[in-house]
Amino acid sequence: MDRYDVAIIGTGAAGLSAAINSKVRNKNIILFGTKELSYKLAKAPKINNYLGFYNLTGSELKDEFKKHLESMDITITEEKVNNVYAMGDYFALMVNDKMYEASALILATGVEYTKPLAGEEKLLGKGVGYCATCDAPLYKNKIVTIIGYNKDAEEEANYVNELASKVYYIPMYKGEYKVQDGIEVINKKPIEIVGEAKVEKVILEDCELVTDGVFVLKDSISPSQLVPGLEVKEGHISVDRLMKTNIEGCFAAGDCVGKPYQYIKAAGEGQIAALTAVSYLDSKK
């Protein structure tokens, strides 16, 4: 397996800046995110505080970002990273049924708006997971509950249904659900995931489901859930002035490290994170 120099998670201003500055310094990078870049950026009606680009809509600034990426031949890997594990001298990034490796990691994941359910963090790895296609074989002939925050979760539910004895699907969005026969759709709000040594049941607003496992399939998960052992305070990743986290080789930038939530601030932090990551890699040679 090829190992990248730097893996960057996030395609907002911080992630893109980190990618550009890493690439300028001849590092082999992989950038995870969406080709639509930041949904918040696209919705901004007018931007006047980004140096050199003023009186632009967010959509226009986004187009400029895209042009910069294209000019440097930087591509975006549109795959969701479910977990990242620090392995000593490298990081293992779990993406559905495969894994990527990188010597340094830059987190530019933005702000997590979906709070974890009660019991979710406590039972993570004890029946709670974030990648159904990764862990479904563990639940062969067992009962599985899937809490889906977008339509992509339906495909994962269908995959799990091929292995599990029973699948409950709890959609957290409106619309029609394309799930296989046999999957029971529960249109009730989940309140808590309960269990001692492992998951035992899910408490809903007016009932409960006995279950062996729960997959919580969100658009994004909080940094502390994404990277076990990462220090987070008041919802933000703890970093120093060089964007270093408490994990060696792991850096963070942008909204995920704190206010103010401004594009130009995020871009600056992305550059610092990249420069620090490059120095870290060069020191290991």
UniProtKB/TrEMBL annotation:
SUPFAM superfamilies, per the entry? FAD/NAD(P)-binding domain
Q: Which Gene3D superfamilies match?
A: FAD/NAD(P)-binding domain
The GO terms describing molecular function are: oxidoreductase activity
| Keyword terms, alphabetized | Flavoprotein, Oxidoreductase
Positions of the FAD/NAD(P)-binding domain = 4-270
* Pfam (any one): Pyr_redox_2
Task: Output the PANTHER family linked to this UniProt entry.
Answer: THIOREDOXIN REDUCTASE 1-RELATED-RELATED
* Identification of the protein by name: Thioredoxin reductase
Q: Organism source for this protein?
A: Clostridium manihotivorum
